[in-house]
Amino acid sequence: MTRWLVTGAGGMLGRDLLTVLAGAADSAGSAGSAGSEGSAGSPDEVTALDRAALDITDPAAVRAAVAGHDVVVNCAAWTDVDGAESAEAAATAVNGTGVRHLAAACAEAGARLLHVSTDYVLPGDADHPYAEDAATGPVNAYGRSKLAGEQAVAELLPERGYIVRTAWLYGEHGPNFVATMLKLAAQRETLDVVDDQQGQPTWSYALAQQLAALGRTPDAPAGIYHGTASGRTTWYGLARATYRLSGLDPERIRPTTSAAFLRPAVRPAYSVLGHERWAAAGLAPLPDWSDSLAEALRRPAFTALVPIAAP
Fold first, then answer.
1. Of the residues 130, 142, 205, 236, which is catalytic?
2. Whole-angstrom distance, CA of residue 163 vs CA of residue 149
3. Helix (H) / strand (E) containing 199
4. Predicted structure pTM score
5. How far apart are the first and last CA of the chain?
6. What is the pLDDT of residues 97-126, one digit of tens each?
7. CATH topology of domain 2-168+202-230+272-286
């Protein structure tokens, strides 16, 4: 039996991960345990702790929560990118120090830690996909806070720590770009969307499946993995694809530049990640972003957002 602990279980990714681990209808968002079947047919025991149930900045609470588990998946994070610019210490307390507490507790308990990180630890100035061992260089406070977490995992869990970087995440259970585009379709005839940032839109459910597969592969080498969809596009391309696949007119989406939407935190211009490391774990990378988007948009949470008529 594999004993799983999912932190941040009330968030978009955490809820999808619980669904995958349970192999049943979504039951995430609160503390508790549920049984499921592993890929080999052996039973899994899953403990789900949301933010109210576990504050990862509390080392004693973290140590108590981790004890008795085999695999810990950390979906807990400070995710307010712009807010981190004026509250970097608070962001780092969660994304850096909190992750260090988890890594230390996993080292003590002999557990494996799958920690979800971000493309924002990279400088975003490349012209080809970033390899897993590419030099880091975050351009904003959020990225610096997440890099601190990565460094803690690498330092404290060199043999049992897994850093899974993702980017451009969207899903059914939280605010995200895809849902916003569909909501705005009922309010505006046209939308201006940034076309000078490249990335890999990643469906949270597909990432959850990948995390579960990695957790169920005990001989996978520790280190950095890139948990983003294959392929690449821009926010403009993602918005157009969202409209086209939802039966809306993609010509309602117009291209613009990042300069038109100045925000407190600088965004990387290039967030395309390479996926070579998955082969070492015997796992395939995530599917192409467009295929995952087409599947995701068939889910009721998204179809319910599609307006019957244009504004």
1. 142
2. 9
3. strand 198-199
4. 0.93
5. 53
6. 999 999 999 999 999 999 999 999 999 999
7. Rossmann fold (3.40.50)
